[in-house]
Amino acid sequence: MSKEEKTNVMRILDGKKITYNSYSYNPDPTMTGEEIASTLGENPDKVFKTLVTQGKSGQYYVFVIPVKAELNLKKAASVSDEKAITMIKQKELLPLTGYVHGGCSPIGMKKQFKTFLHETAINFDTIYISAGKVGYQIEISPEHLKKMVNFTLSDIVIDEV
Question: What's the pLDDT tens digit per position in 96-116?
Answer without folding.
Answer: 999 999 999 999 999 999 999
